[in-house]
Amino acid sequence: MSTLDLDQSSIEFHRMIARKDVVGLELLTTAEAVQAHLAAAAKQCTGEVLAVYACGFPSQSVLRGSAERDFGAVARGARMKVCWQHSMIASTRLNWYVDAARGLGAEIRGCDQSPHRFVIYDDVVFFPRDALAEDEPGAVMTRAPAAVEYFRAQHRFYWSGGRPVAAAGAADEADEFIESDLARDIVRLLAQGEKDEVVSRKLGISLRTCRAHVARIMKVLGARSRFQAGVYAARTGLAGDSSRRR
User: Fold this and answer.
1) Three-state SS annotation for 79-116
2) One digit per residue, pLDDT tens: the chain, 246 residues?
3) Rounded Cα distance, 63 and 91, in Å
C-alpha cells in the first residue's frame, strides 16, 4: 500500500462526506446508539475485524466492551487485525487485551499515529464524528463503498508499516530467565566456546532444551551467534564469576 494510493483514497472519501445527501452515511449521536450498532455489526461479522486505535487511550470499560464484541466475532471465525498506536502498546493497561486477543489468534501490530480511529466489521465502518470536522460526540456508521475502501486503505497502510506486538509480559519473562542461575551457567559455557552438546551434558539438560535456551538467550542479547552471545554476556557480567562453575 503506497502513500499515493492512500492519498487517492482519501480524496474519494472526502468528496463523499462533503455531499449532504450521501447514501449510507449515518450519524449516531448517542452512546447508546453507537454501542447498539457496534454490537449488531460485530455479531453479524464473519469475515474480518480491522481496526486502528489512536488518539488517546480508551477507558477500561470501553476497552472491555470492544473486546467482548471483537473477540466474539473472532470466536465465530472472523479474522482480526488491529493496529495500536505505539504509546498505547507501551501501557501495561493493554496487557490483558493483548494476551486475550493473541490467545484467540488475533493479530496485533504497533503503528505510528493515525489520523483516524476506526473499526471495520466486514463491509461496515464506524469512525468518530470529529472526522467530519464536528465537535459533537458520537460516531458515524457507513457501508458506502468509497468510505469503506478509504478506511481499508488506511488500515493496509498502517498495518504494512507496523511491527508485531509481543505477548504481554514476554519481556519481563525474558528478563527473569536471563537472570536465572541456569541462564548464567549456559552463557558462561558459551563464553568458553563450548558446544551445545557439551553444555547440555555439563548442566544435565537435554540437547533440545539446551538449544532452546541458547536461542532464547541470543534473542534477548541481540547476538548473531552462540559465541557472540557468550562474549556479550561476559562483557556485561551476565556470565558471572568463574568460581560459580558447577
Assistant:
1) EEEEEEEHHHHCCHHHHHHHHHHHHCCCEEEEECCCCC
2) 455 555 565 666 666 655 544 557 888 988 899 999 999 999 999 999 999 987 667 888 888 899 999 999 998 999 999 998 876 776 777 888 888 888 888 999 988 766 678 999 999 999 887 655 444 568 889 998 888 988 998 899 989 988 887 655 444 455 556 556 677 788 888 888 888 899 888 887 888 888 888 888 887 777 777 777 777 766 666 655 543 433
3) 13
